[in-house]
Amino acid sequence: MLMEQRGLPEKIAEIAQSLLEHRSLGMAFETITRTACSFFNASASAIMLFDKEKEYLTIAHSINLSSDYLKVVKVKKGEEVSGRVCIEKKPRFVPDVIKIFEEKNDFFSIEWIKKEGLKSLVTAPLLLKDEPIGCLNLYYREKIEKFEDFSALDFFCKLAALAIEHTKLINEIEDKSRIVTELEHIGITLSSTFEMENIFKVLLASAIKITHTDSASLLVIDEPSTTVLESYDFSKETGEIKRYRTTARLTNGISGEILKKRKPFVINDLTRYENVNPIALQKGRMAVAAMPLIARENLIGILYVDSKTPRDFSPSEIEYLQLLCTQAAIALDNTRLYK
Fold it and tell me: Which of 301, 274, 276, 300 is nearest to 288 (CA)?
């Protein structure tokens, strides 16, 4: 099944170099799946990775599988073939994929497998420091009776896991460097203007860019009286800032938490937050990070960044938002003193 043994070390070295040279995660995924198909004569291949909680595996990238199939595949840790492979940390060969699901009366999966024309499957764990980050699946549309290349597959999967982690680290370093540079420029911009709306626009636009969110808003508040003085909204679709009439509740909910604790407050899924403002859900907001703006120990505003889908906010994103809010709070306070 494996390509001819002659020249195999050279081919493996070539694959290793190819897998580790990418700076884009998408390109790394593409190289892994394409090379896997070619190297192991598979009809299709897919990389499945765990979510942040390491509870479910989903397909991060594939080749020669339909986009509809990718949407329905979700495997719980320890279940199905892929989930068990990750727990056992050993590869597995399945000569007849349909038979496995027939034994479980899983007709939904059988229907999709037949649509894709899949006959046999080989799946192997992707391990980093002996911990699974996901698995690599090789699919065959012609039934195969045996698979003997487990040693080569094990080596390939180790390279693939390293390539994924290597690329993620590069992206993380480059992203941090880019954001730090942007924050320096933002600080210069904020300190060089005494126009309130310019400060608001720079703050909101920058917050969206840093967190890759859909919209951002700002409440300018008077803390002693617990009142909203002004409220502004910014959408990356229009690039415009506008005033709006807020329904934010400063005595409870997310805003109340900010006033009470003066610390960032993050909701990854608003539908699960019992004190959610119904208007937020009506506007399609599904995740939010709220940040206090504090100047000379006074809480002068609250920044919100919103996502249309549930999502996590990384510690680095929260850290960058805090730095941004500190810069903006100083600029707003200076502008008030100037005027």
Answer: 276
Match 């090379």 to its residue by tokens. 35
Domain containing 306 — which CATH number? 3.30.450.40
Do 75 and 25 share a domain, yes or no? yes
pLDDT, tens digit (0-9, with 9 covering 90-100), for 125-142 = 999 889 999 999 999 999
Answer yes or no: do 213 and 306 share one domain: yes
* Residue recorded with tokens 């884009």: 24
Q: What is the pTM of this model?
A: 0.59
Return the structure tokens found at 227: 């009142």
Same domain, yes or no: 145 and 227? no
Query: For residue 117, what are the domain limits?
Result: 8-169
- Whether 156 and 239 map to the same domain: the answer is no
